[in-house]
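As agreed, record copied across for absentees:
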Amino acid sequence: MSRPSSRFAPRTSDDRRRAQLQRRVLGIVLVALVFALGVALGQALNDNPKPGRSRMFVRTLEPSTLPPVRETVTVTVP
């Protein structure tokens, strides 16, 4: 038995259940996507610094002293 090819043909109960399940799954996916986007937006807004509260830290590094370099010199007499 083949299915009717017309899109206006009456649906079977299996088709209705499948369509209802697909709509529910699509709805759940859309709700999860909107939730994830909301969380991402909230994190992005929370991570930005507040205006007028900038801080600058200046640190001067002092050069350290190095020990004198030792050299070994070998002298050969011909």
Observations:
- Residues 13-47 form one domain.
- The chain has a mean pLDDT of 83.
